[in-house]
Amino acid sequence: MWKVKSPVEFPMEMRYRPILESLVPPDPMSQFHLKRGSPDEEFPDLCRNSTWMGRILTPAMYRRQFNRCTHSGVIFDDVIRPGLEEPGDRSGPASVGCVAGDAQSYILFCDFFDRVIEAYHEHKITSQTPESDFNYDNLKGGDDLDRSYAVRCDVSVVRGVEDFCFPTHCSRGERRQLLMLARRALQRLEDEELPGRLLLLEELNQEQQRELNLSSPTSSQLRIGVARDWPDARAIWMSEDGSLVIWVNLDDHLRLVSTQEDANIAEAFKRICINLQKLEEYYRELRHPFIWKQQLGWVASSPADVGTGLRIRVHLKLQHLPKHKRLQDVLKRLRICMDRTGTENPLHCMS
Q1: Annotated binding-site residue numbers
Q2: What residues does the Phosphagen kinase C-terminal domain cover (predicted)?
Q3: Separation between Cα atoms, residue 145 and residue 92, nearest integer Å
Q4: Which of 70, 155, 262, 312 could disulfide-link 268, Cβ–Cβ 3.0 to 4.6 Å?
Q5: CATH code: domain of residue 174
């Protein structure tokens, strides 16, 4: 805010005050009349919170973020709500416990987000621009997994679209505009070389949902606002052979998932790279490029996906390893998560 001296020193101030005030950038928080206490009174109870948000947030940090608000209306309490709704437990891997309401959140609340990103990814944020290499020819290995153990794999990537709030904060109108953009981009993808079909979740009956293995939103998604107005403007695009699936307006604006039933990671990654680069070009031509921040890389709603937005999951048949007493220590050191996905002939998902 500009500091203007009193009218005693500047008699002409009263005359020019409307002009001066029009030049002062407005404080977004001044547009809200929230009935809140002081930062110390509003500070959440984090005693039993095992998320990265709960470990990092301090009263001093909370005070610094308390009166900040993005241009679209995201306040800091919106950011930390997921970790307060799902505090987690000490037995499993820690979740980030926070979510960005829009791309500006990463800038306005950088004091907090940078610490969470550094802790979760174990990577120091510097002034250097991170490199993102989606040239599949540079991938070494990934096509030689032992099929007696590896059953299938999937490679996924998320992207946020410029000029739109993220799912926890976007309006119905924004969500419908995102769906319209996705229709146009995916139509071009179909016309060029990858036939497929776009299915609106609101038009699917229960039988179709079962065939696609679709489930209702979780209670957590409902509480933090990801599933507002469900299933309005949510869609799934599937290639004819089922190897590529693109989710629209679920946890993120776009999520591409490439699946290989032979657990060939290299082939799944190649499919992601080719189609992601095409979609990136289409969205750029539509004047809504994917969100990129110089010091963070590709930006999505969750700090866990900042950087490349890439995840790899491999489904394995394991009989004896899950019983090993040192398995959890090994997984923690390698920063790998393992979940059981079946009861009979159990499969374990490594990601």
Answers
A1: 152-156, 255, 311-315, 339-344
A2: 149-351
A3: 27
A4: 155
A5: 3.30.590.10
